[in-house]
Amino acid sequence: MMKSSTQRGMTLLEIMIALLLLGVLSTFVVNVVDSVVGLWQQGERRGRGDLVYASVAERFQADLRALHLGERGWMVIDDYVARPATDETAEWRLPRLRFLATGAGLTADDSSGTHAVEVMWVLVPENVLKSRFARLVRVAQLESTSASLRESGAASSAVQGVNSTTIVDGVLNLTIDVDGSSSFLSDAYSATHFPPSLNLNIERVSGNSRKKPPRLDGSVDGENANAVLRGIAPATLPPMALVGEEWVRVGGSFPRISFTARGQRSTLAVSHSAGSFVYFPSLYSSRHQLLNYGKRVVR
């Protein structure tokens, strides 16, 4: 008996279905890989930022540990005019912290360890022309009666001197506050002690988030606006963003963002053309305890 066998190839329809399924599967794989890579990049950026801020916070804490708690000790938290107002921009003020420390606690600034050291932490503009980016600068000098950092003029000049060091750049906003208040004068606060702790809060943009920030897909004007952005999404959406030189309160989810409040942080609400940069800063915060909870040591 003769055994018959039938050999049958794939039809054109089956080939097309197979190619379609392969295309769908490939798209799915590519999307998954893109998502994983994006999350990895965001985590890596956040990790680097955490390490940078940890270094800043450690340096800040080391200075505060050296605070002069004697009768001559002083501390001032205030701000200064970094850029005066114009017809198109509001006055730009930046914060600074100044205090007297002991040389014994800051031997890198006083090798003998016997003098008092004046310390200042201050934000200064990275570029005086059309930029809201600033550098966090530390200034330390031996106590001076002729050019004390307590004087605003001397403090401004000292930023350009040999005793100033850039701690971190790419800062968009910084506050140093005591119990939620960002203004503090030690003699007005109390004649017997300093605040027990200070809060350091930094909003910073670095790496690709600064080099290649998202852009507006269309123009924006008016008090409130909805915007579509193009570019890489931030790791997390902060409560406020910088569009050009205007701070806005943001909502929604990337890439569709709503501007719920315009002209925040002493900026003006202005129109922005398509392609304008939108910066989403990463937020870092730490609480710093003062030695002896800020109580003065009176002899």
Explained architecture:
It is a single chain. The chain has 299 residues and is of the alpha+beta class. The chain has helices spanning 12-65, 152-158, 186-189, 208-211, and strands at 75-83, 92-102, 116-125, 134-142, 164-177, 184-185, 197-204, 215-216, 225-230, 240-243, 246-253, 256-264, 278-279, 282-289. β8 and β9 (225-230) form a beta hairpin. The chain contains 4 helices and 14 strands. It folds into 2 domains: 47-205 and 283-294, no CATH class; 208-280. An 8-stranded antiparallel sheet has the order 6-1-2-3-4-5-7-14, sandwiched between helices. It has a 6-stranded antiparallel sheet with strand order 8-9-12-11-10-13, with no helix packed on it.
- Quaternary state reads single chain
Low-confidence stretches at least 5 residues in length (pLDDT < 50)? 1-6, 39-46, 187-191
Radius of gyration: 27 Å
For the largest beta-sheet, the strand count, sense and barrel status come to: 8 strands, antiparallel
End-to-end C-alpha gap = 120 Å
The helix content, as a percent range, equals: 10-25%
